[in-house]
Amino acid sequence: MALNTVLILGGSGFVGRALCETLVDRWVAGPRLRVPTRRLSHAQALLPLPLVDVLPADVHDDATLDRLVAGCDAVVNLVAILQGSEAAFEAVHVTLPRRLAAACQRQGVRRLIHVSALGADPQGPSRYLRSKGRGEAVLREADLDLTLLRPSVIFGAGDRLLNLFAQLQALFPVLPLAGANARFQPVWVADVAAAIATCLERPATAGQTFECAGPEEATLAQLVRLAGEASGHPRPILPLPAPLATLQAWLMELAPGEPLMSRDNLASMTVPNVATGQLPGLAALGITPTPLLAVVPGYLRPGQRCARLDAWRARHR
Ligand SMILES: NC(=O)c1ccc[n+]([C@@H]2O[C@H](COP(=O)([O-])OP(=O)(O)OC[C@H]3O[C@@H](n4cnc5c(N)ncnc54)[C@H](OP(=O)(O)O)[C@@H]3O)[C@@H](O)[C@H]2O)c1
Fold it and tell me: Which candidate among 114, 184, 274, 303 keeps its CA 20 to 30 Å from the CA of 153?
């Protein structure tokens, strides 16, 4: 089916920006992209892109959701939070997908691509993973042409994880690290965007779940070391034993603003964030995952914070 309009919830975020760039690049004169945002200032990066309509909207309001979904050929859901109360996780990861599915059904839109996370499981060890798992279940129950994507931690210009650890190492002489042995299989944001774009282009991916993981596994300590080296501030890493890690996370939760690390994040890290291999991965979508070293030095090196380099490196890997 030809795509004329695609709604991208959460399109102003880290993955959403990469997705919009990918779609605009791939489809040139392709469908219009409808991107709601709670605040226009969150979507500044999208404003110059052709074909992208940024709309201030409250996606938690049914009438607004109906208006956003109406006339679309497909919907991508990228809305998520990393920190919050049980109620906040429920509202964003479970209730919103349920209401989105209902809006799709009311408006006759069948195609939905939902980005979840590796380890999503209603019985998982953290609020984040449990709510992600319940969100998946809610959508599977809906009568929609659904594709689920489960990424590992995502890296790329503007990522949260590696940029944070690069900044911390620029500030402190030693890095006390919680969850140092937690395992990840980091995936490049452009590869995740390409996976979503391919799913949009291939209706036959409906009914499937894809694991989005990179070509290499790394512990958190190895990722922190990479961030330090790439940014020019390698510092000694001090792995924290579990009780001290919990204390550190608890103290961070007490600080104002969104915590850098919470006890819930620590709980998520008890599950290896790596592909199970029991589900199709990026290769099934024709994507060769990009290694960390092909991209990370390009955006963490001081003065090299240019997203375009990511794309250049991938092309000339
Ligand atoms: N980044 C990773 O390493 C990673 C790893 C695994 C899975 N994922 C998944 O990939 C997807 C995209 O992640 P991301 O890193 O792009 O996230 P992000 O940068 O935090 O963006 C999330 C988007 O959701 C919207 N949003 C956040 N809280 C909201 C709320 N309470 N109500 C309505 N909208 C809200 C924000 O839009 P506005 O602020 O403009 O309204 C923002 O554009 C998510 O499902 C995430 O769980 C990400």
Answer: 303
